[in-house]
Specification:
Blueprint lengths: L1 E12 L2 E12 L3 E5 L6 H8 L7 E6 L2 E2 L5 H6 L2 E4 L11 H8 L7 H11 L1 H5 L10 H14 L4 E5 L7 H16 L3 E6 L2 H7 L2 E6 L2 E7 L5 H12 L2
Parallel strand pairs: 3-8, 3-9, 6-7, 7-8
Antiparallel strand pairs: 1-2, 1-4, 4-5, 9-10
The structure holds adenosine-5'-triphosphate.
């Protein structure tokens, strides 16, 4: 069964079209990599699915529920978490306070959630009293992911998670996303660079100037195809 189904999605910013007639599905327990050069509309797609930008047309359904016109809060309650580009942590709060905010609406599950977060990323346990703004970039990324996974989401939208991180940290981030997927979470993975995303994902969708230029199984997106659609800079 499809967890997420996006059909004919278009988004405009004023007079400028950012997405035109984008359709795809993410079956349960699978990952879709959305690739494309700068400005192709990847973040806009993520924001439209999580309700942060208005859709000018198209529908979004999740687990059979129509989410096309509902608020971001309701979309979160349906089980979709969005890790925005940039880290989205509260810099002036400690690691622990940031994690607690993840389950602010559900304090009963807080203890178990924290335990899971520290098990996933032990470094966060060691640094629980440290201000998030003083963590390294990679640690902030882990905090952001740990907070998202604490709420036991059904779909994680991860926008450029690996941007600027050392390869070892990228491994760790993908490892934990992989564990989440094995535990039943679907993943919409947005990446400017193709290599790691395609290794991880089941399906791939390439956006160019707001439209889908190719989609198919991730393991059939060969080098030639990536160069054709993404160019030298992003096919790596
Ligand atoms: N709030 C906004 N107002 C006006 N135009 C916007 C807004 N946000 C994005 N755009 C434009 O929409 C297009 C798609 O942007 P988007 O951020 O979705 O691309 P992207 O594929 O995520 O790019 P990148 O890889 O550079 O992050 C771009 O031309 C961008 O300038």
């Amino acid at each position: 069964m499809s967890a997420l189904k996006v059909d004919g999605l278009s988004v405009r910013y004023g007079a400028a079209g950012a997405l035109a007639d984008v359709s795809f599905e993410i079956p349960s327990n699978t990952a879709l990599a959305v690739l494309g050069p700068n400005g192709a509309g990847k973040s806009t797609l993520a924001r439209a699915v999580s309700g942060l930008v208005r859709k000018s047309s198209g529908t979004v359904t999740f687990g059979g529920q129509d989410l096309s016109t509902v608020s971001p809060a309701k979309i979160r309650r349906a089980g979709i978490v969005h890790l925005p580009e940039g880290r989205g942590v509260f810099r002036g709060l400690t690691v622990l306070e940031n994690l607690r905010m993840g389950l602010a609406a559900d304090p009963g599950r807080r203890a178990a959630g924290l335990e899971r977060a520290f098990e996933l990323f032990p470094v966060l346990g060691e640094r629980r009293k440290q201000l998030a703004g003083t963590l390294s970039g990679g640690e902030q990324q882990m905090l952001s992911l740990a907070r998202a996974l604490m709420v036991e989401p059904k779909l994680v939208i991860a926008d450029e998670m690996s941007l600027g991180l050392a390869p070892k940290l990228v491994d760790l981030i993908f490892e934990s996303l992989g564990r989440a997927r094995s535990a039943g979470v679907s993943v919409l993975l947005i990446e400017q660079f193709a290599g790691r995303a395609l290794e991880f994902a089941d399906q791939c969708l390439i956006l160019q100037r707001g439209s889908v230029s190719w989609s198919g199984p991730a393991d059939t997106a060969g080098e030639e195809l990536l160069h054709r659609y993404l160019g030298e800079a992003t096919a790596a």
